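Protocol step 6 of 9: fold each sequence in the batch and record its structure tokens directly after the sequence line. For illustration, a two-sequence batch is reproduced in full.

Sequence one:
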Amino acid sequence: MKQNIVKTRLKNNQPVLGVLSNSNDPTVAELCGYSGLDFYMIDGEHSSVTTSEVQNIVRACELSGITALARVRSNDPKLILQFLDAGVMGIMMPAISTVAEAEALVQAVYYPPVGARGFAPVRANDYLLGSMNQGEFVAFANEQVLVLAQIEDKEAIDNLDDLLTVEGIDGFVIGPRDLAMSMGYYDGPGHDEVKRTIAGVVEKIRKAGRIAGTTAATGDQARALIDRGVLFCLNSFAGLLKTASTDFMKGRG
């Protein structure tokens, strides 16, 4: 496991921008790295990416200098373990709505004494053939791993004060589309009530000293969010490509 540059930046109150990608092609991750993005988040929820494909995507991230993160489809400790053992440096868990779910995530991600993650000689620890012994790696991994919970429904909003007390969660990332659906707005998050709710959630997260994150479709949106204290901004790979393509096609007139 390498130093988690994204977590270091966030701890220093510096924003990070990256992409959520449902591609299982390592070349896509490699291109994102060379493009200068801070992180590449493998979407293990809304995609067919398998755990056997993750380690090659992570290798491509390491080669091109981008931090590999993953959204895992289920709060299943064995599934989370496979992503982390492959070398992913942070986990974003969708639909965390209760304290019990947040605590289960912490238990799955961290080694003892913080959590209950199982240990084996794997890619993440250089198969114990590198410079760190088991004890050194356990301490290092617990320090470097980034843990993010997604706020995506009304239940999470209702439980937010309690969620913000759970130790081991570095930050909370708001999923605007699912949150809007949960609030009864099935056509998207562009409604004033949804915007006000998101603004209130961001403010609470910041006051609790945790990292606030959400989606940004453009650089201008990301800048506006950062000005409000959102440090973790992500776009979809498809959205990023669409924005760049639209701008490029303006040249056709």
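Sequence two, same batch, same settings:
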Amino acid sequence: MADTQPLVRERSLPFTARVALVLALVWSVLLVLAAFTLPLYGYSSSSATVDGSGGTEEITGTATLVQVNGWTAVLVLAIPLAVTLLVGLLLGVGGRGQRAGAWALTALLGVFTVLALLSVGLFMVPVVVALMVACASAGSRAARTVGG
């Protein structure tokens, strides 16, 4: 006799999806923190006296993304964090439409990353890859039968 128990979807994300989302979240937070702390720019200037007495002064230093580009750098680097949070929310809710939305957000972040490759885009690639893994593994959730 055939089992007629209804199919029930698992509510939790697979382990792979959860790990990928955590990695994307951690990397995204590190990107924002790096904008404030990581010295990515170096500068050097020298000056000499006009009278030719031979006195020169050289000044060197470093600067962060925020020091050079202002809060715009933070906004740009916060995009992967926002997308990661939205993808995590959509995948956590489940459903075909939410998975499609998560894939769409991941694809948009991928396009943004490619467009930004000459500046900070290279640092966003791990987030895109992790979100792709999360979306792919969340889509592999199988329905299971109850009581049988």
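Proceed to step 7 once all outputs are recorded. Observation for sequence two: The beta strands are 7-8, 39-48, 56-64, 144-145.
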